[in-house]
Amino acid sequence: MDLEVVVITGMSGSGKSVALHALEDAGYYCVDNLPPELLTSFVELEHAHHGHRVAVAMDVRSATALPLVPQQLAGLREQGVQVRQLFLDATNDVLVRRFSETRRRHPLSQAEMREGPRPLLHTMRLERELLAPLREQAHVIDTSTLRSAQLLSYVKDLLSVPPSRLTLVFQSFAFKRGISMDADYVFDVRMLPNPHYEPLLRALTGKDAPVIDYLRQQPEVALMLAHIGDFLDHWLDALAHNHRSYVTVAIGCTGGQHRSVYLVEQLAARFEGRWNTLRRHRELDGI
After folding, report:
1. DSSP for 200-237?
2. What does the pLDDT read at residue 51?
């Protein structure tokens, strides 16, 4: 069956609608809030009408049926369907702020009214518990610090790579803005020499030649690059054999501008011939 299905799940307020818009722009036939019971029949119906790329969003409003989804997706894969799973997440404080700004009611709040109103954080903890099995199977995107345009770009980049082999996502970030929730591995490189303290380099980034030249001359930077690269060389085959579709490697420095950006670029160049490879620069992409 020549068909690709993208399933988007995630926390309420994390940006699922934005992600679905990205898929629609990319030519997918999209359905929001599809009841899980209808997933298999919907995919079969759409394929019968010559649709080859389908995207569905599901959320906790279908809580009682969500346990059906992993088995349904496994069945679709057995039929030769290419299935991609995306899970959008954000920190609790960010989600609370978004609900406050939009004045929207949490999808679970209506059900909880029967037992009396509960704090939003309690409702969100319940939502995380209900969605945990789907999160474990999916590629996670932390939208806590992302603008809508960044999320659109990230989703389109993910869809641009072939789904047949493991995809490596290298991401730079600033520790001062928090660790990415979507990272499988996090490396702290704040102990390395910092170009920020070089007046001529301060306004540049790890993509600029003067910064690249400076960092290449630092033995500690070369050693860190070798250690991270050797670690990934050793374990990526095992991850791929374990049916992992995506692995996100986050490199963090203080400001997310120089050292982490440089290391992400170097690591991506090292591995892109062997694996699908994507680069993300969380702080630079938002500029």
Report:
1. TTTTS-TTSHHHHHHHHT-HHHHHHHHHHHHHHHHHHH
2. 73
- Residue-wise pLDDT tens digits, 202-251: 999 999 999 999 999 999 999 999 999 999 999 999 998 887 889 999 99
Beta bridge pairs of residue 141: 88
Closest residue by Cα to residue 2 from 73, 69, 74, 51: 51
Q: What are the pLDDT digits (tens) for 115-141?
A: 555 678 888 898 999 899 999 989 999
185 bridge partner residues: 249
Residues 176, 181, 182, 188, Cα dihedral to 10°: 40
Contact call for residues 261 and 171 (beta carbons, < 8 A)? no
Residues annotated in a binding site = 10-17, 59-62
Annotated binding site for GTP: 59-62
Taking the C-alpha atoms of residue 9 and residue 127, their distance in angstroms, rounded to an integer, is 12
Query: What's the rounded Cα separation, in Å, for the pair 179 and 56?
Result: 29
Nearest to 108 by CA among 63, 47, 155, 52: 63
Contact call for residues 5 and 76 (beta carbons, < 8 A) = yes
Q: What is the pLDDT of residue 36?
A: 87
Q: What is the pLDDT of residues 182-206, one digit of tens each?
A: 999 999 999 999 999 999 999 999 9
**DSSP letter (8 states) at residue 104:** P
Binding-site residues from annotation for ATP:
10-17
Q: Is 101 exposed, middle or buried (0-12, 13-18, 19+ CB in 10 A)?
A: exposed
Cα angle 15, 118, 144 (rounded to 5 degrees) comes to 25
pTM for the structure as a whole: 0.83
Q: Are 174 and 256 in contact (CB under 8 A)?
A: yes
Contact 102, 112 (CB under 8 A): no
